[in-house]
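> forwarded from #structure-qc
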């Protein structure tokens, strides 16, 4: 008897199974869902078996194509650690665990489970979003505005901008965000109880730009205001901006695009300080953002320990929610959230390009960082660094020493200044916090900070307030002067500075130790070029040290090709003797109370006999070894020396030396040894006739090519035949006629000799005279470039 089957009824999928709808950058056609069918049980005939009801109540989430998921297209496969972090799971034993202080969102575990099962990412299961506007309602708006509103219903990026009494600056901040090249964003302005006209400015932006909206809350500080904005944000990515700063136009496009490509949890970028309309590099961000590093981590790039602020970053919202990140309700709220975020992130994108302009206020007293010595300000600063240090000690102990050293040179020195000014209970509370932090600093970190910083913090740690005031006054007074340094200890291999309280038994013996801080100095005071040679006159010294204290040490001078580890050509070495005297055994070396003087012939020392090996950049380096010191330094030179204005200095046939000043005023000697050179250039009625030599065996058929000096000018290469004759093995001479009528438009051309194997040899100009020519009413001049090459320029007279 046939079994009567019930019609399969398809029930709508559970919202928790499929996840809420979300907007993606590229929409794809809806996937067709196959109708439910009755499964056949093995071994049964047609029509036999139990009735089958389609399984719809507890369906597994529909797996979407990888391109539809965040970071799906082109996203590199993450390792196990990355996956655990993005899913919000605890790290395995020996790894990183969730931050104890951070709150975990109630739905985070379910979100992580759904993500593991192939469902929607965790950020789609957080608080409900704003309802999508109905299309008909949008169509009642002007077409452009309707498209804009539909595009921001579920934005790609949410930017939270808390503000409090910043009427002078907030308009510039919001204007910079509105002008971002990434337009798919929402801006949540949070009024933290402002008493000036800031709220009116924000409300005006919300009225004219549908991407802006404003929230109001009682004043509770920057941290709670940021949390309020983050809770209301609906974007896939999250960013914060301070209302008195400025965001460069392409900043969010760069950071969001980076996260889309790499799948990292957060992206951060370089910072500029903004003062009086001028931008300078932020000192705190210089090292960490010196170069772009995609998919790195703070444990691989420890310089990120200095990246403490929230506003130069964009976070993946799933990561932010899964880790339950939130800001404390006090000042200096960034560090105890940003450093843990770096540690807990699976991967981080670091960008050298500036993404934020950090304003230094002109009004002086409004900024938190400009009120740094107020008791509440110092207390909150110390609480933040202590909380961060506690987190690192538990989750990333290898990062605690660099954080301690950074905090000692910045935050604890501020505490020392405040302790010297405060009295009564305020000072007692500050000392308890500061001493509690310093109790956890290991001795290796104590020795790593500069001795003058170490002295002030040792006095703070021992609560020696009168002595601390004296040390602070000394540091301010002696900042621009050299302090006397002396060797000490049983073996005289450690050096100590004459700072206050030296020898005080209440302080550790290493408090005044500056051995690791000493730097050798040297400068070339004058360069002179005469009789085909280059002479250097200068001085070498060890700041703060007397010559008698260096007796017995060995001094070396050398020319080095390239950098510190390049090829070396010794200039001499000498063992220093006590007292001011002239070293008779070392020509050109003298010593006096100001240092060690020298007068050396550099042209004779360079290996010019083998010119090709001598070609390149050279520098003069000094090395001092003895009394526990091994120091080296590149010598500097004054840029005002007249020799730098003379251009290349000819030392021989096709051989020049070019003095110049490089980075940090370091003297550079560039040696140019030409493989081919033009020694004669004669202008004719319609062109030039050039002749010269080449250090190679060139076949009789060759050509002289004229190449555009700058490829951006769009000039085309032209070539003319050259006659070549052999002089001896490895040396040939050539002659060529260059018709100027065949020269196209272009401001400058360089010459090269080319032969059958397509090898191109630049032609130097080994002549002291410039040559002029004229053709087709165009005037040309033949001259030498800064690299000694032959250059043809078109002269345009200004009438």
């Amino acid at each position: 008897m046939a079994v009567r089957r019930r019609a399969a009824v398809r029930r709508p999928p559970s919202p928790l199974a499929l996840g809420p709808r979300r907007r993606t950058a590229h929409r794809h056609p809806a996937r067709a869902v196959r109708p439910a069918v009755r499964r056949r049980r093995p071994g049964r005939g047609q029509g036999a078996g139990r009735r089958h009801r389609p399984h719809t109540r507890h369906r597994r989430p529909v797996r979407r194509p990888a391109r539809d998921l965040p970071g799906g297209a082109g996203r590199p496969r993450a390792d196990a650690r990355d996956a655990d972090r993005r899913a919000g799971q605890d790290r395995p034993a020996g790894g990183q665990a969730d931050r104890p202080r951070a709150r975990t969102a109630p739905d985070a575990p379910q979100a992580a489970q759904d993500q593991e099962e192939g469902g929607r990412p965790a950020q789609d299961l957080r608080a409900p979003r704003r309802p999508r506007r109905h299309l008909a309602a949008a169509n009642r708006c002007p077409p452009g505005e309707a498209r804009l509103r539909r595009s921001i219903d579920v934005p790609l990026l949410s930017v939270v901008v808390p503000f409090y009494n910043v009427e002078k600056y907030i308009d510039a901040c919001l204007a910079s965000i509105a002008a971002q090249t990434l337009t798919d964003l929402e801006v949540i302005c949070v009024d933290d109880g402002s008493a000036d006209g800031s709220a009116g400015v924000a409300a005006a932006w919300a009225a004219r730009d549908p991407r802006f909206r404003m929230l109001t809350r009682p004043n509770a500080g920057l941290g709670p205001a940021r949390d309020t904005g983050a809770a209301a944000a609906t974007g896939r990515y999250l960013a914060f901006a301070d209302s008195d700063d400025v965001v460069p136009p392409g900043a969010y496009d760069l950071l969001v695009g980076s996260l889309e490509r790499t799948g990292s949890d957060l992206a951060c970028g370089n910072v500029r300080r903004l003062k009086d309309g001028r931008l300078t590099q932020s000192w705190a961000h210089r090292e960490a953002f010196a170069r772009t590093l995609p998919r790195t981590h703070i444990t691989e790039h420890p310089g990120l320990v200095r990246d403490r602020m929230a506003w130069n970053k964009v976070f993946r919202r799933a990561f932010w929610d899964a880790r339950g990140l939130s800001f404390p309700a006090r000042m200096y709220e960034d560090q105890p959230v940003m450093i843990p975020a770096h540690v807990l992130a699976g991967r981080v994108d670091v960008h050298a390009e500036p993404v934020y302009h950090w304003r230094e206020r002109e009004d002086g007293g409004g900024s938190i960082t400009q009120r740094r010595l107020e008791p509440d300000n110092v207390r909150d600063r110390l609480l933040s660094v202590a909380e961060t240090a506690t987190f690192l000690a538990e989750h990333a102990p290898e990062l605690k020493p660099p954080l301690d050293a950074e905090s000692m040179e910045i935050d604890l020195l501020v505490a020392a200044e405040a302790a010297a000014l405060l009295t009564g209970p305020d000072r007692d509370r500050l000392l308890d916090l500061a001493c509690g932090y310093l109790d956890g600093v290991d001795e290796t970190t104590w020795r790593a900070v500069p001795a003058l910083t170490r002295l002030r913090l040792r006095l703070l740690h021992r609560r020696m307030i009168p002595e601390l005031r004296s040390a602070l006054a000394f540091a301010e007074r002696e900042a621009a002067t050299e302090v006397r340094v002396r060797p000490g200890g049983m073996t005289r291999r450690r050096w100590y500075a004459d700072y206050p309280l030296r020898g005080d038994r209440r302080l550790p013996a290493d408090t005044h130790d500056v051995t690791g801080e000493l730097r050798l100095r040297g400068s070339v005071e004058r360069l002179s070029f005469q009789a085909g040679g280059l002479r250097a006159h200068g001085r070498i010294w060890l700041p703060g040290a007397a010559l008698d204290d260096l007796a017995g040490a060995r001094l070396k001078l050398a020319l080095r090709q390239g950098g510190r580890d390049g090829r070396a050509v010794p200039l001499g070495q000498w063992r220093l003797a006590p007292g001011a005297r002239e070293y008779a055994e070392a020509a050109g070396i003298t010593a006096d109370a100001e240092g060690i003087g020298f007068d050396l012939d550099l042209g004779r020392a360079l290996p010019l006999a083998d010119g090709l090996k001598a070609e390149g950049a050279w520098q003069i380096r000094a090395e001092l070894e003895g009394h526990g010191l091994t120091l080296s330094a590149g010598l500097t030179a004054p840029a005002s020396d007249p020799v730098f204005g003379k251009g290349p200095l000819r030392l021989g046939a096709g051989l020049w030396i070019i003095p110049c000043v490089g980075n940090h005023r370091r003297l550079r000697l560039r040696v140019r040894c030409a493989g081919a050179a033009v020694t004669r250039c004669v202008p004719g009625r319609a062109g030039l006739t050039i002749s010269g030599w080449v250090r190679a065996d060139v076949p009789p058929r060759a050509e002289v090519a004229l190449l555009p000096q700058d490829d951006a000018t769009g000039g085309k290469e032209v070539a003319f035949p050259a006659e070549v004759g052999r002089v001896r093995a490895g040396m040939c001479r050539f002659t060529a006629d260059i018709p100027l009528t065949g020269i196209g438009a272009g401001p400058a051309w360089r010459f090269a000799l080319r032969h059958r194997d397509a090898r191109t040899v630049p032609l130097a100009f080994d002549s002291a005279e410039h040559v002029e020519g004229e053709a087709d009413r165009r005037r040309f001049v033949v001259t030498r470039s800064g690299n000694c090459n032959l250059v043809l320029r078109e002269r345009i007279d200004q009438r």
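QC bot note: The longest helix spans residues 375-395. The chain is about 25% helix and 30% strand.
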